[in-house]
Amino acid sequence: MIRLPIVCAATALLLTACASDITNPNTSGAGSGGTGGISNAGLMGGGHGAPGSQEDLAQSAGDRIYFDTDQSLVTQEAHAILDRQAQWLQQYPRISVWVAGNCDERGTEEYNLALGQRRANADRDYLASRGIDSRRIQTISYGKDRPVDPSSSQESWAHNRNAITSVR
User: Fold this and answer.
1) What does pTM read for this prediction?
2) Which of 162, 70, 165, 65 is nearest to 108 (CA)?
3) How high is the mean pLDDT of the chain?
4) Are 54 and 25 within 8 A, CB to CB?
5) d(CA 139, CA 104)
6) Domain range summary for the chain, segments of one domain joined by +
7) Domain 3-167, CATH
8) Residue 15's pLDDT is what?
9) Cβ distance 16 to 157 under 8 Å?
10) Which of 37, 58, 65, 110 is deepest in the core (most CB within 10 A)?
11) Exposure string (b/e) for 70-109, b if CB count within 10 Å is 16 or more?
12) Which of 1, 2, 53 has the alpha carbon at shortest distance from 29?
């Protein structure tokens, strides 16, 4: 009889210990500046994470922009997000970032890798046009290999056509 309360208490303690502030760069935020990932600050209603952190970037500026189908042109909506990212990067001149270009599941692997690279480069070039030293920005394409939303629908494809900025 005494074992059940002990097991329950131990389980609760372990679950509490497992909660962390780890944020996956592929799910850590929406282009509008909100976060789609799970973190303690998000659960506790906390602020913007540590200054200069990935969580701070995602919550202060937004960490991703979205693209139209088969396009690598930065949209007007994306300009606003990238302008906020540029301001954020100007606040933290010692921070460098990765920009990962992503695609939806349609198309060949080769096509999507090339399109993802064009998307990452467009993101980098826009930030550079706003005064961010391009040497602080590395780009990579994941093509269709890292979907944010693994389902197959128009909505999921729209979420997967993105460029995600991550603090290095």
Assistant:
1) 0.73
2) 70
3) 81
4) yes
5) 18
6) 3-167
7) 3.30.1330.60
8) 35
9) no
10) 58
11) eebebeeebebbbeebbebbeebeeeebbbbbbbbbebee
12) 53
Q: What is the pLDDT of residues 119-165, one digit of tens each?
A: 999 999 999 999 999 999 999 999 999 999 999 999 999 999 999 99
User: Do the Cβ atoms of 139 and 99 come closer than 8 Å?
Assistant: yes
Q: Which of 147, 66, 74 is nearest to 107 (CA)?
A: 147
% of the chain at pLDDT higher than 70: 71
Provide the 8-state DSSP code for 78: H
Q: How far apart are CA 10 and CA 1, in angstroms?
A: 15
- The alpha carbon torsion through 86, 134, 58, 159 (nearest 10 deg) reads 110
Backbone angles phi, psi at 81, to 5 degrees: -65, -45
Inter-axis angle of helices 76-91 and 109-129, nearest 10:
60
Instruction: Quote the CA–CA distance of 40 and 23 in Å, as a whole number.
Output: 10
Show Cβ contacts of residue 159 under 8 Å, excluding neighbours closer than 6 positions: 66, 148, 149
3-state SS assignment for residue 94: coil
Beta strands in 26-136 (DSSP E): 64-66, 97-102
